[in-house]
């Protein structure tokens, strides 16, 4: 008689998109201004008990959530997602796609190459400054 074993496997949720605000974008500037405005508008003088503190914290959380959702955009996560990509590249690539000129293609490639170099040099420097070994660098590259 064969031995049968049932192994329960939990269903795993794999996130395929996320909300993000691109660094150094107009949306990031707007988000930061909104957050500063939210903090400035908080009336902390009326905190006299736990209930009033909870109300202020809840209004802060609500304001921050609203600012986030009004400025963030939904992006798909793929194995090809690039952390160094930004709106400048989209504009440069769009310009090339419209014109199809060699000059615009070279311009796009130059922008990408220089930015990638800066991005990865910065990451390597961060890891080196943390006094980590080469394995930490390899782990970061494989993420």
Low-confidence stretches: none
Which structural class fits the helix and strand makeup? Answer: mainly alpha
**What's the order of the H and E elements?**
EHHEHHH
Report mean pLDDT, rounded to a whole number: 81
Shape, principal axes of CA atoms: extended
Q: Work out the strand percent.
A: 5-15%
Number of strands: 2
Helix content: 55-70%
Question: Would you write up a description of this structure?
Answer:
- With 143 residues, this protein is mostly helical.
- It has two domains: 65 residues; 62 residues, no CATH class.
- The protein contains five helices and two strands, in the order βααβααα.
- It has a two-stranded antiparallel ribbon.
- α3 packs antiparallel against α4.
- The longest helix is centred in the last third of the chain and has 28 residues.
Outline the fold blueprint.
Elements: E1 17-20, H1 26-41, H2 50-71, E2 73-76, H3 87-99, H4 102-129, H5 134-141
Compact overview of the structure:
The chain is mainly alpha-helical and 143 residues long.
Can you give keywords for this protein?
143 residues, mainly alpha, 2 domains, two-stranded antiparallel ribbon, 2 strands, 6% strand, extended
């Amino acid at each position: 008689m064969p031995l049968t074993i049932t192994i329960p496997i939990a269903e795993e949720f794999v996130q395929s998109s996320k909300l993000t605000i691109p660094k150094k974008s107009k949306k990031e500037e707007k988000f930061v201004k909104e957050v500063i405005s939210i903090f400035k508008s908080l009336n902390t003088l009326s905190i006299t008990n736990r209930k009033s503190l909870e109300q202020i914290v809840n209004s802060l959380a609500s304001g921050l959530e609203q600012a986030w959702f009004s400025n963030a955009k939904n992006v798909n996560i793929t194995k090809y997602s690039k952390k160094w990509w930004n709106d400048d590249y989209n504009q440069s690539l769009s310009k090339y796609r419209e014109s199809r000129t060699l000059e615009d293609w070279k311009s796009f490639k130059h922008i990408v190459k220089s930015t990638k170099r800066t991005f990865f040099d910065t990451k390597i420097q961060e890891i080196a400054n943390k006094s980590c070994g080469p394995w930490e660098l390899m782990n970061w590259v494989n993420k």
